[in-house]
Specification:
The complex is a heterodimer of chains A (338) and B (527). Chain A is an all-alpha fold. Chain A has a single domain, classed as ABC transporter involved in vitamin B12 uptake, BtuC, CATH 1.10.3470. Helix content of chain A is 75%, strand content 2%. Chain A has helices at residues 2-19, 23-50, 57-65, 71-82, 91-108, 113-138, 142-160, 175-178, 186-204, 206-216, 218-223, 228-254, 266-276, 287-306, 312-337, and strands spanning 166-167, 180-181, 184-185, 256-257. In chain A, the strands form two sheets. Chain A has a two-stranded antiparallel sheet with strand order 1-4. In chain A, strands 2-3 form a two-stranded antiparallel sheet. In chain A, α5 (91-108) runs parallel beside α7 (142-160), α6 (113-138) runs antiparallel to α12 (228-254) and α9 (186-204) packs across α10 (206-216). Chain A is globular, with a radius of gyration of 23 Å. In chain B, β14 (322-327) and β15 form a beta hairpin. With 527 residues, chain B is an alpha/beta fold. Chain B has a six-stranded mixed β-sheet with strand order 6-7-8-3-9-10, sandwiched between helices. In chain B, strands 16-17-18-13-19-20 form a six-stranded mixed β-sheet, sandwiched between helices. In chain B, strands 2-1-4-5 form a four-stranded antiparallel β-sheet, covered by helices on one side. Chain B has three domains: 1-90 and 176-256, Rossmann fold (3-Layer(aba) Sandwich); 101-169, no CATH class; 260-515, Rossmann fold, CATH 3.40.50. Chain B has 20 helices and 20 strands. The chains are: A mainly alpha (338), B alpha/beta (527). Chains A and B meet through α1, α10, α11 and α15 of A and β1, β2, α12 and α13 of B. Chain B: This is ABC transporter domain-containing protein. Chain B: InterPro entries: AAA+_ATPase, ABC_carbohydrate_import_ATPase, ABC_transporter-like_ATP-bd, ABC_transporter-like_CS, P-loop_NTPase.
Chain lengths: 338, 527
């Protein structure tokens, strides 16, 4: 009797799996990977309903996607470190350092543009190098080191800008950031290209696989002959370079830089990275997920601003988003292991 | 049949028709068992047989499907089981790692969660605690000082502390104690004391449910056994008196798996080329020189302090040392070689610490299995995907990895299957030298057989295979020669024919002679 009663249980399980193909399974697959996109659409609809004046969807989306924002670049910087098991908090300050150094040298000290760019990038990479040496070689906790170097970088940036906003770069340079393609500014497209490159490197090359193992279990990586230290080291350098580059690009676009606002970018970038782990490759830090999450968050912020909220709401929104994103991504990873 | 005629009035623990389904798939079906007062009842089965699921259902970690029933001394206690109430109801657990905090006193370890407290200030009444603990320890016939720290205790005394915790606030001779793979945390020399303690408990009327991978142990200690296979009970309450290891193994596996068969099916076929170690040193290894022929399996064994646990890591690049390895016309200098150089020379090292060094648990079977081959099979700008899937599926088939899902995170698999992934990862390319460090640690009987066969197969395929292990039966089952280490050097070589007892007594003899001690330490299989 026992066996007859148990038979349907298994049979039911098996048939459900088999007949579930392909529609349900495809739907589950899409839902698992792109639930964030669905959430995005829901959010947009919500805003459309809530907003008193009818908003032109085309204009609104151009306003969101066309923002002069460093979040995508900074998100990539976070991914290159966090994917190899490091936690770099200095990225926003490095961004500020490079973004300030470049216009400060040109405007305040009369340096030629190419040289100023080189020096600004070198400064950014130098901070990354210090991070890498202290964390990877000396072996200090990465959070402590990068908080410290970040603070130093910000201080130096403030010193160089005489503690005020630098402005007055040649308006012709603005094309670097603002030059339009398909109605969207160059900054957006740089982000797209870099996201694709990063996603490719991380999923389809041996380097990406090595990064994955260094981040997941450095001992296993080491015993498989992966140069663990070099990869961790490289993570810090690439992160610093990405942060520096976007600082310079945005300085070009605006014609100057407001140093004090640089650290504001820390929260949205971190939130985008963690929120990105629920999309595309669930449970893993991935560039495309981060990209979707970044614009999801920017849309949310934009909508809140249209509703008349500003100032305090930025902190609350990104802070809450970061915590929710980390919680969800942790739960997802725990479920993947169970 | 024998047990039916001797049916006791009320079983201490009775499990009726417990079923657990996850997402429509039954992982345990209609499991039933009864444990009489004073009985040691063993629960055996491979990883994935539903054994741990059953324990988790009884302990309230999972909740069983509603139609089953769990009775304690005839009283219905679930499902659903209330985990917090279990101890009070008479069911307590001693887990794998014994669950002791080394830094705390015996008293605190025993009383944790059940401290006697002042009702108002909630201050712990240490004197009352101490009395209760002393009573329990006395009952267990040990003279451990309740205020001693656990880390100062001998292994056998630690076991007593864990058991004392399980017996707290319990009338002597009542209740059920579940030992969930507890003997794994106990070194060989402390096992007899552990078994004595179990017999002491049952002689008073307490029932014991004993979960173990070690079938020998089960036959020694248990009165009856319940065998699970593929989520079903294949035998319940079968008296162990009528069983031997072979019969029990075939019940567990559903087929016979004699370790002795491995040598027969894969007989020695040594080839002329050799791999040579010259004066390998590092850690406790003081200078090991040996030669292993391709096609040969050579075992290394010895006591805990013989340097055995350092030898594998030295050759695998997991520990810095000195010395040379000569293979295939190349000479690798261990003092200077990077891990990559060792890999390029054709050395594959399978570390003892599977979770920390063997596999990345968060990553998939495919990612883990193909990692060592990415450099040779992939291009710097493109790993390629087809060969990865093909190789992974090959490994899954060859080692019978379950479930056969290349994209599953390794963390979701059982220990034996994780070990198979680890083996597959390194055996794929037929290494020149395969170094296995304690390969059968914490795996079930089926996986053990698969792992040992795979090691022998690697030799047949042309690798020189080196097995570092304190499990003399494993060595006897697959090795052509066994080298015995002592104080970091090889002191004796044994050549076939030999059996496990011969190897074990050789280890003892060597140690006895060296230290001139009446009782030599046994080779504990600590990682």
């Amino acid at each position: 009797m026992a066996t007859t009663r148990s038979q349907p249980t298994i049979a039911a399980g098996v048939t459900r799996q088999k007949t579930g193909i392909p529609l349900t399974r495809a739907a589950t697959y899409l839902l698992q990977r792109y639930s964030l996109v669905l959430l995005w659409i829901i959010m947009v609809v919500l805003f459309l309903v809530l907003l008193p004046n009818s908003v032109d969807l085309g204009n609104a989306s151009r306003a969101v996607l066309g923002q002069q924002t460093p979040v995508v670049f900074l998100g990539l910087a976070v991914i290159t470190t966090i994917a190899v098991g490091e936690f770099d908090l200095s990225f926003a300050f490095i961004y500020g350092l490079a973004g300030t150094t470049f216009p400060a040298l040109v405007v305040l000290h009369g340096w030629p543009v190419p040289l100023a760019i080189l020096v600004a990038l070198a400064a950014a990479v130098l901070v990354g190098l210090i991070n890498a040496v202290l964390v990877v070689i000396v072996g200090i906790s990465s959070i402590v080191v990068t908080l410290g170097t970040g603070s130093v970088a910000l201080g130096i940036a403030l010193l160089m800008s005489d503690q005020s906003n630098v402005s007055g770069l040649d308006p012709a340079l603005a094309q670097v950031a603002l030059g339009s393609f398909l109605g969207l500014p160059a900054v957006f497209w740089y982000g797209v290209v870099l996201v694709i490159v990063t996603a490719y490197v991380m999923t389809a090359t041996p380097l990406g696989r090595s990064m994955l193992f260094v981040g997941s279990n450095p001992n296993v990586a080491r015993l498989a002959g992966i140069p663990v230290r070099r990869i961790r080291f490289g993570g810090y350098l690439v992160a610093a370079l990405l942060s520096g580059v976007i600082g310079i690009i945005l300085a070009c676009g605006v014609g100057g830089f407001s140093t004090a606002t640089a650290q504001v970018q820390m929260m949205p970038a971190l939130a985008a990275v963690f929120l990105g782990t629920i999309a595309v490759v669930p449970g893993r830090f991935n560039a495309i997920g981060m990209f979707i999450a970044a614009y999801f968050l920017l849309t949310g912020m934009f909508g809140l601003q249209l509703l008349g909220l500003s100032g305090w709401v930025t902190n609350v929104f990104y802070g809450a988003a970061l915590i929710i994103a980390i919680t969800v991504s942790l739960l997802l990873r725990r479920r993947a292991r169970a | 049949m024998a047990d039916e005629s001797a049916t006791p009035p009320v079983p201490r623990l009775e499990v009726r028709n417990l079923t657990k389904t996850f997402a429509g798939v039954a992982v345990l079906e209609n499991a039933s068992l009864t444990i009489a007062p004073g009985e040691v009842h063993a629960l055996v089965g491979q990883n994935g047989s539903g054994k741990s699921t059953l324990i988790k259902l009884i302990s309230g970690v999972y909740s069983a499907d509603p139609d089953g029933e769990i009775l304690l001394d005839g009283e219905h206690i679930g499902p659903p089981i209330k985990a917090k109430a279990l101890h009070g109801q008479g069911l307590s657990f001693v887990h794998q790692d014994l669950g002791l905090v080394p830094d705390l006193s015996v008293r605190d370890n025993v009383r944790v969660g059940r401290h006697a407290v002042n009702p108002i200030t909630r201050r712990i009444r240490t004197s009352e605690d101490a009395v209760a603990v002393s009573e329990t320890l006395e009952y267990l016939r040990t003279d451990i000082d309740p205020s001693a720290k656990v880390l100062s205790l001998l292994p056998s005394e630690r076991v007593a502390v864990a058991v004392a915790r399980a017996l707290q606030d319990r009338t002597p001779g009542t209740g059920v104690v579940v030992f969930d793979e507890s003997s794994r945390a106990i070194p060989h020399e402390a096992l007899p004391a552990f078994y004595d303690m179990i017999r002491l408990l049952t002689s008073q009327g307490t029932a014991v449910l004993f979960v173990s991978h070690n079938l020998k142990e089960v036959l020694e200690i248990a009165d009856r056994a319940t065998v699970l296979r593929n989520g079903r009970v294949v035998e319940t309450g079968i008296p162990t008196a009528g069983l031997d290891e072979a019969k029990l193994t075939s019940l567990v596996l559903g087929r016979a798996a004699e370790l002795g068969d491995i040598m027969e099916s894969l007989p020695p076929a040594p080839r002329p080329e050799t791999v040579e170690f010259v004066d390998v040193c590092g850690g406790r290894v003081e200078g090991v020189s040996a030669a292993i022929r391709r096609g040969e399996v050579v075992g290394f064994t010895g006591t805990v302090d013989s340097g055995l646990s350092d030898l594998g890591p030295l050759l695998g690049g997991d520990r810095r040392g000195a010395g040379k390895v000569k293979l295939g016309g190349r000479v690798v200098d261990l003092a200077r070689a990077r891990v990559v150089d060792l890999l390029d020379a054709g050395i594959a090292f399978i570390p003892a610490d599977r979770h920390d060094k063997g596999v990345a648990l968060d990553l998939t079977v495919e990612e883990n299995a193909t990692l060592p081959h990415l450099r040779s099979r992939g291009k710097p700008w493109w790993t390629g995907f087809k060969w990865q899937r093909a190789e992974t599926e090959g490994i899954i088939e060859r080692f019978d990895i379950r479930p056969p899902n290349p994209t599953m995170p390794v963390a979701a698999m059982s220990g034996g299957n994780q070990q198979k992934v680890l083996l597959g990862k390194w055996l794929l390319g037929t290494p020149d030298l395969l170094v296995l460090d304690d390969p059968t640690q914490a795996v079930d009987v089926g996986a053990r057989h698969a792992i040992l066969t795979a090691s022998r197969q690697a030799a047949a395929d042309g690798s020189a295979v080196m097995v570092c292990s304190a499990e003399v039966e494993d060595l006897a089952a697959i090795c052509d020669r066994v080298l015995i280490l002592q104080d970091g050097r090889i002191v004796r070589e044994m050549t076939r024919p030999f059996d496990a007892d011969a190897v074990l007594s050789a280890v003892f003899a060597v140690d006895d002679a060296a230290h001139a001690l009446p009782s030599a330490p046994t080779p504990a299989n600590e990682a």
